[in-house]
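FAQ

Q: What does a record look like?
A: Structure on top, sequence underneath. For example:
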């Protein structure tokens, strides 16, 4: 599951550095992109916002910190797993891929 969605955890930053900004849920900082960063490739502005709240950083204003700080990278990955993926594990591979 993780291997499939993260390229075997070989990349700290997503190759496709798209904007990933959903302004209907949370604001986006000017000039920032919310592409995948960290072991689980945290993506989208709303995930950076919530990960920041849970881990004590401003994820919307400073998404790059997830790629630069290895401790924070793993903290956000664990937060994402526990918040979004763990509950769907019993539903199988497809559900976990969609969650990640």
């Amino acid at each position: 599951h993780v291997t499939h969605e993260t390229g075997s955890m070989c990349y700290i930053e997503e190759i496709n550095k798209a904007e990933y900004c959903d302004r209907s849920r949370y604001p986006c900082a000017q000039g920032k992109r919310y592409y995948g960063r960290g072991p689980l490739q945290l993506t989208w502005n709303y995930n950076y916002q919530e990960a920041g709240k849970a881990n004590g950083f401003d994820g919307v204003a400073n998404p790059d910190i997830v790629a630069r700080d290895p401790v924070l990278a793993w903290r956000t990955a664990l937060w994402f797993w526990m918040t979004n993926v763990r509950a769907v594990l019993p539903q199988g591979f497809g559900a976990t891929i969609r969650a990640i």
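Q: Is there anything notable about this one?
A: The longest helix spans residues 70-85.
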